[in-house]
Amino acid sequence: MARTKITRYAISMLFVLLTAFAIDSAKSLHFLSSRNQEQACQFDDCHKYLHWDLGIVGIETLKLRPNDVLGQLLSNRGVEYFKINQLIEAAKSIFPFRSIRAGKDLTIVSDLADSSIQALVYEPDPYRQILFHLDDSVRVEVINKDVEVRTETAGGVINQSLWVSMSDLGLPMELIASMENALGWSVDFYHVQKGDAFQLIYERKYVDGQPLGIQKLVGARYTSGNTVYNSILYKGSDYEGYFDLEGRPMKKAFLKSPVEYARISSGFNMTRFHPILKRVKAHLGTDYAAPCGTPIRAVADGRITAASYTSGNGNFVKIKHDKTYDTQYLHMSRFGPGIHPGVLVKQGQTIGYIGQTGLATGCHVCFRFWKNGKQVNPINEKMPPPAAMDLNQLPGYLEYSKGIKEMLDKVIISIPAEHPVDEVPDESLPNS
Ligand SMILES: [Zn+2]
User: Fold this and answer.
1) Which residues, 6+ apart, have CB-to-CB distance to 144 below 8 Å?
2) For the M23ase beta-sheet core domain, which residue ranges apply (predicted)?
């Protein structure tokens, strides 16, 4: 009899243990079927917590304050020290605690039955989710979210500025930089004409249905009066970049100016009255004024032939581009990193910084353009055209660009909303 009782007791104990084990397994069972998840989740941001069965765990999200210490936070909520230390160790090589930033959300996933913490969820950026597991197996897991790339189009008319038109259409400002890459060689976006129109095809990244950055600008068209510029992004076996509809690169061999966003303070002039020498002296360069310290860029690929100082030029750099053209940049405050005679530089590379060394009245760069050893005005120069795409590559490009052009043709140009018209003057007021 006693033996039977003991056996029965043992069996029921075993049953309890097995049940407990089963519950434990269920707790750490991730990725349940989507039907269950939808039924269980009652939060706006359920997509974040689909790893757990929300019938078993509770979700609490808190905003991290500047002095929150994760270890302390866990300890306050009853997590044992040895587990906290295990987690800190596990996190070290994957996502250290110190990388967690104040002001961001931290989600605590806890067991509904005993409120023990099962995991922490932290999203350092929209692309990743870091899971700090505190259930039976303490570990850190990085989940890279699925990035969906959608092709979108936009078209608008410029009323005030490109910026205003883009923001009126709710377009990301990133697209402006992309447009500069695609069309900046042909269109001066800082001096656009009212009524100019743009049509764009671009790829945008989405995560959890939220729009994020621009992946790439696939094609762009800019219409100013009767002039239409098309720019199509293409990657072939030998070519990569933006091309026009005939397969010529949009990128030119020479940049328009050696400084971004500068104003011309003194043009090329054969009979200029010199402000310091107080006499007529030809100005064989173009002065671009910008704050001292502004980077000066090489207008084309070439080799540095001088990086030195004279009392008139101040610190200056001279670059040989080919057998015909040289450019020279005067009055620098200092040279760019690694700029020495003999060094090869790329177009756009910083070769120095705006200064006022030598004979200069303010912060500017005097840009000099040499053709066959004589200084000329670059505005009058018919610059060498960029090398055209090889004939054997051209058919592939034309085939591709035809499709993009047809897409551009269909991009609807939104007309900007009219700004409210002033009310008709009240007739009862006397005319003055
Ligand atoms: Zn000058």
Assistant:
1) 127, 128
2) 282-378
